[in-house]
Amino acid sequence: MYNALSGLNAASRAATLVSSNVANAMTEGYAPRSLELSSRSLAGTGSGVFVEGVTRHTDDVLLGDRRLSDAMVGYDSTKADFFNSLESLIGTPDQPGSLSGRIASLDAALIEAAAHPESNARLSAVNTAANNITDHLNSTSKAIQSARLEADQAIAHQVQRLNTGLKQVEELNVKIQEAQARGVDPSGLMDLRQQTIDGISPILPLKQLPRENGRVALITTGGAVVLDGKAAQFEFTSVNMIVPEMTQASGALSGLSMNGQSLQTGGERSPIAGGSLAAQFEVRDELAGEAQKRLDGFSRDLIERFADPALDPTRASGEPGFFTDNGSSFDPTFEIGLSSRISVNAAVDPAKGGQTRRIRDGLGASVPGAVGNAQLINDLADALGKSRVPASGGYGGAARSSSDLAADLLSSVSADLADAETQRSFSMSQYNTLKQMELSKGVDTDAEMQKLMLIEQAFAANARVITVADEMIQTLMSI
């Protein structure tokens, strides 16, 4: 009778696990369970079946690889999204309003104005085309700084998520340990812990290490121990505004610290390298800064093309040329953020109190000159198309025209985008493959149904034993 009762209990527990497995076949992070049984003996005689416990089936190696791949996707996607946005800001030649298109429009406007220097409409078209270029550079620079600000805010958000997730894993570790001490199945808590770790794995590339009593420790691939007993506390302070001069090195932007110790946020040796958090720091402190540098270099080249004193004899010494640094002459020691300040000389802009005739007569011409004189306009067109070596921006030592320099600026961004997209495609393919492998090791409903049939048969057989034993007792009692 006791043997049969223990068999009924085991079959009932097994049916409970099967029903849980089937019910959670589509649940993210759920690991299949199975019942571990052993035969019990008493004084050398079989005494029924003993339920050892519940086994939660996971492939820890596959799970770890998938989490690292998840972090790689977060890193590559963040970079690719930045370069894609930057390419859209600069604009490809086939897009209306692109930088190269605006340079071509200015060149065409100068040629048309030189053909009819007496036409105020054509001189106004030159002023409009020039303002379109400076507006484009201003807005692109502003967008780059907005991208840095968004990255800064994303860092703050991810640090908060990271701290919350690590604290939750710490608390789950304690609950799992307590459940095991009470003899309660902690599988549900382990599922929740796995889901919590999965939630923060795109932020940091984490490795999970087993500890006693069902607890786990977490360490980054860069060697930072973020959880071992107690969860680490990350600190970061966001800002409300970012301008080109603000950097982490200058102290204007916050770095990252863990338990009060500063962490290196960039480079391969960074303890946080490889996740979306590291990518956001890279966007804020490196990629956007390099983009701003190249844009400033282009703006400087544009200003210096028209700053030659021999180009316009009417311009006083030291006065700015056709393009200015916020209305003043350009100072090479103050190049950072130049693309956000570049503007057309107010002397030729009616919106700023100037006159478009000075495009023909000269920036310093106080009285109108000969309306048929197109010499200065032709010289301006030549200056725009002249090949010269850029003084800054990292463009190399080759001489280029203004349109060629705009093409090089776009080409460098497009090349970075192509590399980032290639890396993202690889990491996404790897992640999807590992995810499919992980899902294939999940609940097999066909196998669970077959198992349920065996459980049903075992339950019926044990119930039959009890029925027979009861009949025997009743027979004995009736004698």
TrEMBL record:
<feature type="domain" description="Flagellar hook-associated protein FlgK helical">
    <location>
        <begin position="84"/>
        <end position="306"/>
    </location>
</feature>
<dbReference type="InterPro" id="IPR053927">
    <property type="entry name" value="FlgK_helical"/>
</dbReference>
<feature type="domain" description="Flagellar basal-body/hook protein C-terminal">
    <location>
        <begin position="442"/>
        <end position="478"/>
    </location>
</feature>
<keyword id="KW-0966">Cell projection</keyword>
<keyword id="KW-0964">Secreted</keyword>
<comment type="similarity">
    <text>Belongs to the flagella basal body rod proteins family.</text>
</comment>
<dbReference type="Pfam" id="PF22638">
    <property type="entry name" value="FlgK_D1"/>
</dbReference>
<keyword id="KW-0282">Flagellum</keyword>
<keyword id="KW-0975">Bacterial flagellum</keyword>
<dbReference type="Pfam" id="PF00460">
    <property type="entry name" value="Flg_bb_rod"/>
</dbReference>
<dbReference type="InterPro" id="IPR002371">
    <property type="entry name" value="FlgK"/>
</dbReference>
<feature type="domain" description="Flagellar basal body rod protein N-terminal">
    <location>
        <begin position="1"/>
        <end position="30"/>
    </location>
</feature>
<dbReference type="InterPro" id="IPR001444">
    <property type="entry name" value="Flag_bb_rod_N"/>
</dbReference>
<dbReference type="InterPro" id="IPR010930">
    <property type="entry name" value="Flg_bb/hook_C_dom"/>
</dbReference>
<dbReference type="Pfam" id="PF06429">
    <property type="entry name" value="Flg_bbr_C"/>
</dbReference>
<protein>
    <recommendedName>
        <fullName>Flagellar hook-associated protein 1</fullName>
    </recommendedName>
</protein>
<keyword id="KW-0969">Cilium</keyword>
